[in-house]
Amino acid sequence: LSFSLATGLLFGRFSRANLKLKFSDNILISDYAKNEGKGLMFRVTNRRNTNLLDTSAEVITTTYHIDENGEMKRDYSTLELELSEIKMFPSLWTIVHPINEDSIFAKNSLEELKRRNLEILVLIKSHDETYGQIVHARTSYKGNEIVDNANFLKSSLLNKEGDIKLDINKIGEFVKK
Fold it and tell me: In 3-state terms, what secondary structure has residue 60?
């Protein structure tokens, strides 16, 4: 009975599903055709050979300011995303925040946000079909990891059989304009 209990506890601990995503190293501010303006964007890909369903992303900015009493306070703001949820996450997802008049990036210059210690928090939640569980991943970007006027390079190609091949090591490559 003791051996069975110990085995069950160990199996339960090490067989838990975890989300292994690869995020681009930088967030880019690029031309964005849908609003004929700019968009804040980063890329994410699934590093495991599993199906992810009902994947959602939430992106939050945090900055500091000094209030009227001279105390440092933290501000949080949720970024509106072009697409915050996808039903199936097979390979690569470029997550885009269209910069419109309501965006923190339209109301403040990038230099001002960096002075206010901008950090962008990314939270991803998905259902792992293999384990039948909800899994989570998170990352963050500091102000110095934002590249203005840049575009991501293509990270996939079509092979002779017509299959799309994704090079996950190239998802964060970009070119400055």
Answer: strand
